[in-house]
Amino acid sequence: MASTADIKNGLCMHYNHDIYVVIEFLHVKPGKGPAFVRTKLKSMTNGKVVDNTFPSGHKIEVVRIERRKYQFLYKDDLGYHFMNNETYEQTMIDGKLIENPGLIKEGSEIDILFNSDDESPLTIELPQYLEFEISYTEPGQKGNTATNAQKPAKIETGIEVMVPLFINEGDRIKIDTRTGKYHERVK
């Protein structure tokens, strides 16, 4: 058992019969009354974000999470299938547990987070930026980099992202996997 003094960003804990990860926390010591810790928690099973305030000294149950490298194989009606690169063991994960499933390319390496108590997969973690090729977009306008105007473009996985006007079909771009938005063009 840990206490609120051990809370930090990235800490995983049991809360309300679920596993949550701490996104933000703030230790508050008001002039009057007891200290408390204000937190923003994200559920590892359904992705819901909740705000919670713990009184100072409150006991919390920490969950140990293991991160393992897997390779994405394919997607079917059951979910997303991954293979462990060391043991060649395959794991299937439901699409609801993946934040941006349209950004996963076949053959790409990702991290899967497992609950070390029961070896159940919790979620996947993509690298912060991934490169994709533009499979379709309207022709680019050369020299149009001054404005923030954007146009739709389809990437190789089939999803549509908004890109600047100067991007052409066949260009490679970086996408921020946390937001699913265009980051920069790759030379």
The oligomeric status of these chains comes to single chain
Task: Using the coordinates shown, work out and report the CATH topology of the largest domain.
Answer: SH3 type barrels
How many strand segments?
16
Overall mean confidence score, pLDDT: 88
Low-confidence stretches: none
Helix residue percentage: under 10%
Going across the major beta sheet, what is the strand order?
A: 1-6-2-3-4-5
* Helix and strand element order: EEEEEEEEEEEEEEEE
The domain tally reads: 3
CATH class of the largest domain: Mainly Beta
Radius of gyration from the alpha-carbon trace, in angstroms? 21 Å
* Class based on secondary structure composition and strand pairing: mainly beta
Report strand %. Answer: over 45%
Distance between the termini: 50 Å
Describe the largest sheet: 6 strands, antiparallel
- Which of globular, elongated, flat, extended, rod-shaped describes the shape? flat
At CATH's second level, what is the architecture of the largest domain?
Roll
Helix tally equals 0
